[in-house]
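Structure ticket #2291
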Amino acid sequence: MRRAALAGTLLLALSGCTVAGDRAEAGVEQVVVGYQSKTINTVTAGTLLRAKGFLEQRLGGKYDVVWQDYDTGAPITAQMMAGKIDIGSMGDYPLLINGARGQQSEQTRTRMIAVTGYNRRGALNTVVVARDSPVATLSGLRGKVVSTSVGSAAHGLFVQALRKAGLTDTDVKVENQQPQVGASALQSGNVDALSQFVAWPGLLVHRGEAKVLYDGGALEVPTLHGTVVRQQYADQRPDVVKAFLAAQQDATDFLWRHPLEAAEIVAKATGLPAEVVYLYNGANGIATFDLPIRPEFRAALEQDVPFLKSIGVLQGIDLDAFVDDSLVPAGGGTPGAVLSGTDAICGTAVTDPALAGELWLAGENTTIATTDPTCLVKAVRAAKASGRQIRAAYVPDATTGTRWFADKSTWVQDGARFLPFVTEAAAKTFSTGHPGSRVLSYDQLVNES
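Resolution: structure written out below.
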């Protein structure tokens, strides 16, 4: 299966090169875009943008767009330094490395020109362990092997979380691996935990192959992804850069207005389950999409620099020269697709993102919004009683607010309330502090009346 998929990918890539070559011979200039299809926080500058054809529409046939897909930001940076990619998208740590490498020469300078997806608390990065792992807390990783992509935000999350838990970097052995390699290593038992960025943790948990050990939202450090351009290219082709950002706004608007359809489009293009894509990119999703590089994001990037210096992948960077969102289109509306309406089960308004849940029934192209986790439980029970199959149910963690799969969460019943937690440890901590409450599995939750 993997060989067949690889062959198909190579065939498509080769076919794309042939078409681009024909158009180049016809005098149509190329613009090369590097993106990461499976890093779904960048879809508005990558997968969704490509699938909807917004950039080609904005360029009006004046340029031939060549799309290059990568697993991480590092090869995109390498290609940009070589002048072979004009515009790219990647996470915050790779963005900083990109900017620092670019500033080594006037010919290679780059600029971060927009944000794609972000989470203000850091929940786009997660530490997971195998489903049957006895490790229940970060402290339990002492002396064990953890896979991550060194220099990524997921690596930074892990190191900061370790320190917060009272461990040092040397208390665990870190294996520097690409996300898919780390995922295989976790499944085979060659590593004890995996710290990675979206969408790998959600994918492994959705498949039933892993459980969350540490919710990145508990760190409360913003994480973001963004768009970067070669400075020379921006100077030479400002019309293309402006068209790209306008097209990115088109993709963002589409995602805001049609989050479920957008998730299905990205799922089809990437092979990821739509339920996983929607977890991150859907209404009230873990990721919020908006283009401006807000002050808190600039501050977060500045705070990331010392860590990257400490691991030897960054010597320094002039952030003022690197970060520039002056070409971002004005307006754009309220960031994100937000759950709203009336909860049909509880008869109450859906207004608070920190509480609102969502039910996606099989065969439906719309979802059911619920006011809070307790109402979601009632909706799930009602769906089950009527024989309806549930495609996915989403609910925010009671402490961090991180949106997660309801059936993969650990629940606590506290009186008449039902409270979900991304990690079992958080659920037990809450229950210990609330006498009379009890920890429930999802099966207990939906089967008890």
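Closing remark: Confidence is low (pLDDT under 50) at residues 1-21.
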